[in-house]
Design goal:
By secondary structure, this protein is mainly β. 3% of the residues lie in helices and 41% in strands. The longest helix is centred in the N-terminal third of the chain and has 10 residues, at 80-89. It starts with 21 loop residues before the first strand and ends with a strand.
């Protein structure tokens, strides 16, 4: 077992990039302020074997009239983070992808379970690394290699574990978390092999007619920290008891009931909303939203496709669609979903499940913004969205270019009319130019309360 190494923050700042002539737009400045921060990840490589860049913005700088000029604290993930992973795992992380915080804030600005957001959890999608960063100091404190490919790692609200979607490994894995002690432990005995397991009904977990490709995409943990809704690349879904060892499936859904590639998952007012999207060669274009009543989810095993989800909408017949990120607005009265292919935000009423508005993001700010992942300011007045670049590194199918965007950066959207409407205010540009080629590809983002 290798020792955990704490590196000084000075070693964690952006260094010169060895890939060629380069320009990174944001400057290094002091961090913290305004009551919250916005953390954003650019997936593009900063070293020959990976890296990536983390941008941290003061919330106050994003709320003024000059939001487009907001400057960031810039951290090269090819520096201290890469060194820590090499020291602790023997391998280098590549392509930072999904970013989440423990103790996530709720719509009214309160912390879930009274927990502070002390650590960022960052997954690397081209490798199996899960990186834990102490948020206040910016120090990377632990790196775990779960195997083939860490697509997303979701912290439980009770702060006791993180669930990891090991995508191409087709594994669901659990990391035990002790944030106060900076102690994070992979629990091999808990691992669920989604390619070889058997469901409670006796069916194979992965089968051509049921669930043809069980690469887990995004595990969404409910507010009790008991259950995770696990979306699958080939379609279908599992509800998993996260307290069992090994992890146990309690409800199973086939590809006809839940379509592929879901990643926008949000619990609001007793309902778990799960979307389906595109971004894979087998399923490049998709846009659906499902609603699961959590009152019907118990530890008792359910028959296949029960409790049945409600289909909130399906936009598949429109053709060029690709749903991805989601966030509640209006103190949980509405749900916003980003469609990166169609360049819009779909607004849904919570509870009644009606699509009431579609916000187009194309216009004078961008002809092709490609909105991806979403988060909201603690007071609910702004929604932030990552905007993909012209050379997306993940979830793009070249034949359709569903994830290609022309203005890489962060979209700032003012929330209006109690959460049911919005105004696209500004783009905070993120640039990584090498030899005249724009490589920036923003993806993961998360809001962190600082007080």
């Amino acid at each position: 077992m290798k020792l955990r190494v704490l590196l000084p923050i000075g070693l964690f700042l952006l260094v010169a990039l060895p890939l060629g002539k380069s320009d990174v737009s944001a400057k290094i400045i002091g961090g913290g302020g305004g009551g919250y921060e916005l953390w954003v990840v650019d997936q593009s490589d900063t070293t020959a074997d990976g890296g990536g860049t983390l941008y941290i913005y003061k919330g106050a700088d994003l709320e003024g009239r000059n939001a487009s000029g907001a400057q960031a604290e810039v951290i090269d993930l090819g520096g201290a983070a890469r060194k820590l992973c090499l020291d602790q795992t023997g391998s280098a992380p590549r392509r930072p992808h999904m970013l989440m915080f423990n103790g996530a804030h709720t719509q009214d600005g309160k912390h879930a379970h009274g927990a502070k957001q002390t650590h960022a959890i960052l997954t690397f999608v081209a490798t199996g690394h899960v990186l834990f960063i102490e948020a206040a100091s910016r120090n990377p404190v632990a790196c775990i290699d779960v195997g083939v490919q860490a697509h997303a790692a979701t912290p439980a609200p009770n702060q006791q574990y993180v669930v990891v979607a090991n995508q191409n490994g087709k594994l669901l894995q659990r990391i035990k978390t002790d944030y106060a002690a900076n102690r994070f432990t992979l629990e091999p005995a808990a691992t669920l092999d989604l390619a070889t397991c058997t469901t409670p009904s006796g069916a194979p977990c992965e089968a051509p007619d049921l669930r043809p490709d069980n690469a887990p995409i995004c595990p969404i943990v409910d507010s009790t920290s008991r259950f995770a809704f696990v979306t699958l690349r080939g379609g279908g879904l599992f509800i998993v008891d996260m307290t069992a060892t090994p992890l146990a499936i309690i409800a199973e859904y086939d590809k006809e009931t839940v379509h592929p590639n879901g990643c926008g998952g949000v619990e609001v007012d007793g309902t778990m909303y799960i979307n389906a999207g595109g971004g894979t060669p087998a399923n490049p274009l998709e846009s659906d939203l499902y609603a699961f009543s959590l009152r019907s989810v118990t530890s008792a095993v359910s028959p296949p496709n029960t409790p049945a989800p409600a289909l909130v909408f399906s936009h598949d017949e429109r053709g060029f669609v690709d749903s991805h990120g989601a966030v509640p607005t209006g103190r949980g009265r509405y749900l916003w979903l980003a469609d990166r292919a169609a360049n819009r935000i779909v607004v849904v009423t919570v509870g009644t499940h009606h699509v009431i508005r579609e916000l187009s993001l194309t216009g004078h700010l961008s002809s092709d913004p490609a909105p991806d992942l979403l988060d909201i300011s603690p007071n609910g007045n702004l929604v932030f969205v990552t905007l993909r670049g012209p050379r997306p590194l993940t979830a793009n199918v070249p034949e359709v270019n569903n994830a290609v965007g022309s203005t890489p950066g962060i979209g700032v959207i003012r929330v209006k009319d109690g959460g049911s409407n919005g105004q696209f205010l500004a783009i905070v540009p993120i640039s990584h130019v090498v030899d005249g080629v724009q490589l920036a590809d923003p993806h993961g983002l998360a809001v962190r309360r600082t007080r």
